[in-house]
Specification:
Blueprint: H1 3-17, H2 19-28, H3 34-48, H4 56-69, H5 73-85, H6 90-104, H7 106-123
Length: 124
C-alpha cells in the first residue's frame, strides 16, 4: 500500500462523503473486508478522485451515470449524495438519469430515478 495515496484518498473520501459516513464504514469494516476498503480508499479516492484531470463535479456526473446504468442502487445513492456535496443540482442529476434511461434502458433509468427521488427528498 502507498501510505501517501491512502491518506490522500481518506482525506478526499471524508470531504466528499462526510466524516460520519466514513467513520461508519470504518467501524463496520472487519478483518475480512479491510482489504477491499483499503483498496477503495487508496485507488478509487486517492488515485482516481485525486487526479487533476477532472473536477469533482465531473467525476460525480460520471459515477452517477455509470452506477445508474449498471443498476447499483446502494452505490448510486451514495454518489448522488456526494454529487450534491460536489455542487450538482437536483436538475442536473435528473438530466444525468434521463440520459441513462435512453442509453442504458428504461428499467435502469426508472430504478435510478427511484433512488434519486429518495435522496433528493432527504436534502430538501
Amino acid at each position: 500500500m502507498n501510505a501517501n495515496r491512502y491518506e490522500e484518498g481518506l482525506r478526499i473520501r471524508r470531504e466528499v462523503n462526510g466524516d460520519a459516513v466514513v467513520d461508519r464504514i470504518q467501524a463496520e469494516t472487519d478483518d475480512f473486508s479491510r482489504p477491499i476498503q483499503d483498496l477503495v480508499t487508496e485507488y478509487c479516492w486517492g488515485e482516481i478522485w485525486g487526479r487533476p484531470g477532472l473536477d469533482r463535479r465531473s467525476r460525480s456526473i460520471l459515477n452517477i451515470g455509470m452506477l445508474a446504468a449498471m443498476n447499483r442502487p446502494d452505490a448510486l445513492a451514495g454518489h448522488i449524495r456526494s454529487g450534491l456535496v460536489n455542487g450538482l443540482t437536483p436538475a442536473e442529476i435528473q438530466e444525468c438519469l434521463l440520459q441513462v434511461a435512453v442509453y442504458a434502458g428504461m428499467p435502469a433509468g426508472l430504478a435510478a430515478f427511484k433512488v434519486a427521488s429518495g435522496i433528493i427528498g432527504e436534502s430538501e
